[in-house]
Fold this protein.
Amino acid sequence: MIEEINELVKEGLLKEVGTIKPNRELYEFSHERIREIFKQLLERLGEKGFYLATIVGTDILKDKKIRLDYYVVVLPEETTIVLRTYVDRDNPEINSILDLIPAALAPECEIHDLLGVVFKGNPALRRPFFVPEELVEKGIYPLRKDARV
Amino acid sequence: MEKENKSDGKAKIIRYTPWLVHFNTGACNGCDIEVLAALTPFYDVERFGIKLAPSIRHGDILLVTGAVTKKAGERLKRLYEQMPGPKFVIAVGTCACTGGVFAKSYSVYAGADKVVPVDMYIPGCPPRPEAIIDGIAKLLKKLEQS
Amino acid sequence: MAIDKVIEVPYALEIPVGPQHPALHEPILLKAYADGEEVVKVEVHTGYNHRGIEKLAEKNSFYRDIFIVSRVCGICNGVHANCFVRAVEQILGIEPSPRAKYLRVLAMELERMHSHMLINAVMAEIIGFDSLFMNIMRDREYIMKSKEIVTGNRVSADYMIFGGVRRDLSSDKIDKLRKLIDRVIPRIKYYKKLFMEDETILKRLVDVGVVKPSEATLYGLLGPVARASGVKIDARASDKYDAYGEIPFNVIVRNECDAWARMMVRWDEALESAKIIKYVLDHLPQDGKAVPDERRLPRRFPPGEAYTRVEAPRGELIYYVMSDGKPMPYRVKIRTPSVHNILNTAKFYIGYSIADLPVILTSWDPCISCMERLTIIDLRTGERRKVPMKELAGGGKKWVNPRYSL
């Protein structure tokens, strides 16, 4: 357990919910507070103290949600922790953390193009990025579960 | 894909020193490194007078590797149009022949023959450098007879 | 940067590099904007290689997915398959035998060696040192031969399967491998010496494409790029997957932060890999079957999720697999190191000359097929603040013959 993360849990920003195999600690947070959390991480761990490994977006069709997992690797022990949040499937919006952490560029653009999540404040979002134009014209997000591609 | 008549004798011109142009249309790199291996000293395709051309405008043979993605497909067509005739296309690897494991994907046209006429198919995932050299040599033989 | 200088130079040159590229053999379009000789902005245009693999993986069964994911990238196919297989093994709760774990390490380290030799050879070609390129490629064939002996094919071998590997190694093959590796090690040492001493190489690589340590973490750079900037990250050492917990090895870190340091890290890692391979050949455990009986492998996959990391030749490779109890995975997420190493690095070209551009690009070890299975990005963010006047100057974009390529 990383002390700085523990502090955030005590302050109520994160909520401990278990683990993902193998031994990646899982925390949940509400999607409005994303920028606050990453600002705290930058402050407490420092620029050299962690990096954002990736963001995984998953379409949870039965709950009408899109799940976003922010995978953060804390240095120097390289402990991977998972910060999980949910956004509404019909109106998927979350604040971008691009200006805080430039590494978010690739995953944010990718999730925008494949799942249609809008990262507010990211100027690089654009369709079509790589999804073929015919799909973009039809408004299809290929990784959504109800997309027929 | 239909191809314009190439057996007009012009094809014979290039049979001694055909210049290769290599284009990756969405390959996994496996075929690309094997093409590279075929060009380097251990296999050495240059002993047949074959050389890698610096630009598509100098090329005689276009080596296509990989399943043709929709975005690269347009490029492939453009490259083919820019090649001076007589021109030939070799599809290297299963993906370039038929689409391979990617054939059903939403962003792939499948084989290279969906976009440009293909003269020679070299299957394999990836084909060994020997197979690539064999394919090119067979194409040259075909030119001799044309 | 003096602003008045920009006014003297009325326009910036737009130079497309690629996607049909004579040297790199990979489809990527770098749009570089140059002011005189100096690069002021780079846009990375990709998408020529997007094959929709994550969706394909969702539509096929777990067993078929092993073959699909190993075709994400041909150079590091074993690593991709290993990462996926281990994620599914976590969900299933099975573990391969010690012998299988050692054999997996062997296959992956051979891959790392030939990948590092390849990119160093390409770097030699890019800087115009063609004879060195040919020499390295020739010695690389020993590694390809070793890989063929171990896995059965030179490149894509589909060596990994749930619960083990698909081919065992007999003792006469081990002797053959020893001989091949012993032949390569002095050659690698010689090339490393060459990269340290040769004046042309030093002149082209030293102090080019500098990445500061704090930038490396902030931009999420991985693998040899981060390690050459003094950031000690290595999934092999931290996650201790497969047999890496039992094998002694060093994590190579350098502090020069430039393109030269990145190439040197790769040479040192290749030597380190050779050491690991020799250790594996000497200590290959005899207990347990390396090849599982494929008929007895589980057909039902319980619900669950797993997140595995592997140190691929280019850096940390990530697979996230989620199962909902059906024969097909609910979600497969692949994050390859090249995504970060190429897309997030447009900033680091700025200020260097046009001739340095391919050098810097090669020093990331671009693996386009890895990157583009899912991503394409326009890298316009962030750069505007750095070179505002030059941006303005580039607004009028004079069109240059697009056929002119570097």
Observations:
- Chain C touches chain A through 52 residues (CB under 8 Å).
